[in-house]
Design goal:
With 112 residues, this protein is an all-alpha fold. The protein is built from five helices and no strands. The longest helix is centred in the C-terminal third of the chain and has 32 residues.
Amino acid sequence: MNELDNAITKLIETIKQDKDYIRYLDLQNQLTNNLEINELINTIKELQKEATRKGHIGNDIKQLEIDIETKFKQLNNIPLYIEYTNALEKVNDCFSLINKKIDSYIEKEVNF
């Protein structure tokens, strides 16, 4: 098991040193501290909750849907948010590739 622990530790260290991962963490920190972005995200969440509640009881939610779409457009026009979502996508793609390689290795070793 020691060899496996070493391989996992090495993988984690490699991820932590990856430039895309480091950039993602920096952008995530900037996003967390950005009042405009946080207010937009919270507004969108509240509008979505309201739309869900009103939709459940059969109320018309067309205006709420328009408001949500408008807020999403505002959010998606903020350069920091765009850069963050791009970085998040890169990191998620990397983790997905790692998962696939691990799955493939395990299947090969266990002879599924």
